[in-house]
Amino acid sequence: MTGEPTTTARVFQIEGGFGLDKLSLAERAAREPGPGEVAVRVRAVALNYRDLLMVRGHYNPRQPLPLIPCSDGAGEVVAVGPGVTRVKVGDRVASMFAQDWPSGQPNKAALSSTLGGPRDGMLAERVVLPERGVAPVPAHLEDAEAATLPCAALTAWSALVTLGGVTAGDTVLVQGTGGVSIFALQFACLLGARVIATSSSDAKLERARAMGAWRTINYRTTPDWGKVARKLSGDGVDHVVEVGGAGTLQQSIRAVRPGGQISLIGVLAGGASELNMTPVLMQQIRVQGVLVGHREGFEAMCRAIGQHALRPVIDRVFPFSEARAALEHLASGRHFGKVCISI
Ligand SMILES: NC(=O)c1ccc[n+]([C@@H]2O[C@H](COP(=O)([O-])OP(=O)(O)OC[C@H]3O[C@@H](n4cnc5c(N)ncnc54)[C@H](OP(=O)(O)O)[C@@H]3O)[C@@H](O)[C@H]2O)c1
Predict the structure, then answer these.
(1) How far, CA to CA in Å, does 282 sit from each of 226, 253, 308?
(2) What pLDDT is stored for residue 269 in this prediction?
(3) Domain membership of residue 277 as a residue range
(4) Does residue 159 lie in a domain region?
(5) Nearest atom in ligand 1 to 338's CA
(6) At residue 284, what are phi and psi to the nearest 5 degrees?
């Protein structure tokens, strides 16, 4: 029956144009997995800011439609095609953000193999993916928790561990309390680093302290937070997890110590602006772009999460039928940690 449609699965897809109002429920044929493929009954999806940009048409306005959005999902393997060896029926797995990036440096094939655009994503009851495009998740995690790992968690892990070499005694600054930053806070604590967290909300900063942040700064009431962070840490922080982009980079450059690293991850505060780059060279600051990460990094991260029984922070789980409301909640910025959808 390889490749033959057997039944249907409900999906959310962007169709007829971009915008939250264009996200509609549809039925798609649910084919059986072919050679090297697995079918996954998706149990939960976790949202990323990128999914919102994708639905709104801001990520890639030329993305062909219809498209099933969302890169991150977790569920159980319900069928395997011929030759599959990595997983078996019944295994709990998560999707890999980049389906064709096993390890090492990214290349064109890896960068164009991402789920939720250009490839169909996980906001579906059932998906068929290459076996290399899924990986087992730590056993102690609930479905929604497992769904948070492919993009936000792996990005934080890649920034701090794979590309950052953060170690015990380091000081790490995390910006805001969204998905990536809260994982960065958790991983930095796990690595024995101390964390300075920023947020626009004092209530969220209190929660960050309860999670182990060493010092916190409200970036709204303290616009010169880079200077404050530098002072707090002595010579400057060792590592900044930069999710604001051009709008916050100047402050990050102020915060970081000579020879320190800024992991450039997001552009929440803008993608372009005029910046004074002189301190970057005069202080030999390393500005490292981060694009999520590879499968090998995902597996290493899952070992750490499993060994330390780390639990992702979930703000809210919406039912499948309320996918649009879930994206609106993400857009509001009211969340702390991850916004998920149960399927
Ligand atoms: N390069 C990659 O591989 C990669 C992977 C994942 C995400 N990203 C990008 O990284 C960014 C964060 O993603 P996410 O999924 O974590 O988003 P998210 O969960 O939507 O994060 C939103 C939070 O970011 C904080 N924030 C907004 N503007 C800020 C500013 N000017 N300064 C400091 N913090 C600010 C706010 O925290 P408070 O409410 O506490 O102020 C807000 O609640 C996005 O731009 C996303 O596209 C990139």
Answers:
(1) 17, 11, 39
(2) 83
(3) 164-289
(4) no
(5) 19
(6) 45, 50
Centre of ligand 1 to C-alpha 182, Å, is 10
Average pLDDT of every residue of the chain: 96
Helices (H), the chain: 49-56, 108-111, 143-147, 154-157, 179-190, 202-210, 225-233, 246-255, 278-282, 295-307, 323-332
- Ligand 1, atom nearest to 293 Cα: 3
In this prediction the pTM is 0.96
CB 22 within 8 A of CB 31: no
Query: 200: Cβ below 6 Å to ligand 1?
Result: yes
The predicted pLDDT at position 275 comes to 86
Locate 97 and state its tokens.
């953000």
Q: Is the dihedral of CA 142, 263, 211, 193 positive or negative?
A: positive
Residue 146 belongs to domain with CATH number: 3.90.180.10
Ligand 1 atom closest to the Cα of residue 181 is: 16
CA distance 259 to 141: 37
Structure confidence at residue 3 (pLDDT):
47
Tally the domains of the chain: 2
What's the CATH number where 191 sits? 3.40.50.720
The predicted-structure confidence for 59-72, as pLDDT tens digits, reads as follows 999 999 999 999 99
Q: What is the tens place of the pLDDT at every residue in 185-229? A: 999 999 999 999 999 999 999 999 999 999 999 999 999 999 999
157: Cβ below 6 Å to ligand 1? Answer: no
Ligand 1 center to 2 CA (angstroms): 41
Ligand 1 near 121 CB (within 6 A): no
